[in-house]
Structure formats: structure tokens, C-alpha cells
Design brief:
The chain has nine helices and twelve strands. By secondary structure, the chain is of the alpha/beta class. α6 (about 175-190) links the parallel β7 and β8 (about 195-200). Bound molecules: adenosine-5'-triphosphate (ATP). The site of adenosine-5'-triphosphate (ATP) has 10 residues, from α1.
């Protein structure tokens, strides 16, 4: 354990599907606790693979340290106590109510699960935070897509992780709920959680992210504050678009795409 490290450090991360290497020797300056980090990039860039690797859902080579403790090779229950992952897919446990699904997520897979009373209290607080309290007793198969996505987020939040990994958490949400969720993520970061979210919407990243990691072909091609990473050159290089970027007087950010290129 390296005592002074805070957040997540990745060094020489390598991930394969079969014989194909999808992430090749990926290293990053530490992903800091108290920061909201967005991972962006084109389809197939390796963003989900990166998150799944961080979550311990696939074999990796290299080193991943969270607060100085090595995650690669750590016991799944130890990792689960500190890392929570929200997948792209919506929750499948359709026989459960919202509350049951969140309680299950709170107590499963961790070495020292909270008591039922503690789990109920945490679940109630999490549902309240996400505006889901009135849906607590509704079965998942009676929810809208957006409500199921919020439930999936609640399942990750209720674990109170040090590292929260979210793979496209906003895809089913309306404009209000997109910003409401990002506001919750910002609060969690302020409380000391390292939050890493894959997002396609760079406008939302501009409003909320402290740091943007741009990926392409399994590699990090830019990493830093949005104004330094999302530039016309980067958009051409990473997304193959000709685009201009506008920062408006009120700070709002917009991208105007004027053409498509091929690689
Ligand atoms: N289970 C798998 N088996 C083999 N190859 C895979 C598997 N999952 C993903 N890949 C490949 O790995 C690469 C990275 O995929 P990944 O899902 O990480 O991309 P992504 O950046 O998350 O894309 P998207 O934005 O479309 O969700 C792609 O070329 C994809 O075809």
C-alpha cells in the first residue's frame, strides 16, 4: 500500500478479448478522488472495456491502485467494498421492486455487508437523493426506461464506493434528469468519491466535468480539463469531424459540426 496516494492510478494497463489486445499499456495520471472525470471517444474506442477493467470485470495486466491499494488480483469482495460499477445495460432483475433491487445491490458481493437496518436506511437515502422514493415498491418491469436507469444508478450509489464507475448513465434520461444526476455526481465527488463516467455528450461534460479523458483505438489521446482536450484538432483526430467550438459569454459550450471526414 502506498500511503499518500489518493484516487485511482493506472499503469501499463493491458486488456485483451481473446488474442486481440483492446487496451494496450494504458497509463494515466491519477484519477483523483473529489473529481468528476468523463471518459469520451468514438464508438469502439475502448471506453466500456476501460471501465469494466477498472471494475474488475475482466482480466487485466498492469497495475491499478485505489488510494494506494492494488486492485489487480484483489479479492472480489474487497474490491466490491470500494468500487461500484453501473453498466450500460438496464437492471435485469425484473421480479424485484425498486427497493428490493437497491437493497440487493447494497448487500451482495461485499465481504462485510451492512445489516438489514443499515441497508434499508442507506437504500431509502439513495432513493430519496435520486427522486425515486415514490417508486420504492414498484416492480422493475413496471418502470419506464429512464426510471430503470435511475434504479441502476441507485444500485451503484447505495454501495457508498470510493470509486464510482458509470457507463453512459444518462442515455435514457430527459434533460432535467440528466442534469439532476450530474448534480448528484458532482456532490458525490465533493464528498470525496472518485467519479468516472463514460459520456458521449461533450456539452454535458463541458458543464460538469473536471477532467476529460479522450480515447481512440484503445489508447488515451487527450487528458485534462475540457477546454484543453476538446479542441477542433482533437475532434477531427478522434471523431473525424470538422467542427468549431464556441464558448459563449455565459460560459455555455457548444460544438458546431460542419463536415464529416473518413480515416
Ligand atoms: N466481448 C467482446 N469480445 C470481443 N471484442 C469485444 C467485446 N466487447 C468489445 N469488444 C471490442 O473491443 C473494442 C472496444 O469496445 P468497447 O465496448 O470498449 O468500446 P466503447 O468505446 O465503449 O464503444 P461504444 O461507445 O460504442 O459503447 C471494440 O472494437 C469492440 O468490438
Amino acid at each position: 500500500m502506498r500511503e499518500r496516494e489518493n484516487g485511482l492510478a493506472a499503469e501499463g494497463l493491458r486488456v485483451r478479448y481473446g488474442r486481440r489486445i483492446v487496451l494496450a499499456d494504458l497509463s494515466l495520471p491519477p484519477i483523483e478522488a473529489s473529481r468528476l472525470t468523463v471518459v469520451a471517444g468514438p464508438n469502439g474506442a475502448g471506453k466500456s472495456t476501460f471501465l469494466r477493467a477498472l471494475a474488475g470485470l475482466m482480466p487485466v495486466e498492469g497495475s491499478l491502485r485505489l488510494d494506494g491499494c492494488e486492485l489487480v488480483g484483489a479479492r472480489p469482495a474487497d474490491r466490491a467494498a470500494r468500487v461500484a460499477y453501473m453498466p450500460q445495460t438496464l437492471p435485469q432483475d425484473l421480479g424485484f421492486t425498486v427497493l428490493e433491487a437497491v437493497l440487493h445491490a447494497c448487500r451482495s458481493g461485499v465481504a462485510r455487508p451492512p445489516t438489514i437496518d443499515e441497508a434499508v436506511s442507506r437504500a431509502a437515502a439513495t432513493l430519496g437523493r435520486l427522486g425515486l422514493a415514490t417508486l420504492a415498491d414498484v416492480p422493475l418491469d413496471r418502470l419506464s426506461g429512464g426510471q430503470r436507469q435511475l434504479t441502476s444508478l441507485a444500485q451503484a450509489l447505495v454501495r457508498r464506493p470510493r470509486l464510482l464507475l458509470l457507463d453512459e448513465p444518462l442515455t435514457a434520461l430527459d434533460l432535467h434528469h440528466q442534469h439532476a444526476v450530474l448534480s448528484v455526481l458532482r456532490s458525490l465527488a465533493t464528498e470525496g468519491v472518485a467519479v468516472v463516467a463514460v459520456l458521449h455528450d461533450l456539452g454535458l461534460a463541458a458543464s460538469w466535468a473536471d477532467r476529460v479523458i479522450l480515447m481512440r483505438d484503445g489508447a488515451v489521446v487527450a487528458d485534462g480539463p475540457l477546454d484543453a482536450t476538446v479542441t477542433p484538432t482533437a475532434l477531427a483526430d478522434v471523431y473525424c469531424v470538422t467542427a468549431s467550438i464556441h464558448r459563449h459569454a455565459d460560459g455555455a459550450f457548444s460544438i458546431a459540426v460542419s463536415g464529416l471526414a473518413t480515416r
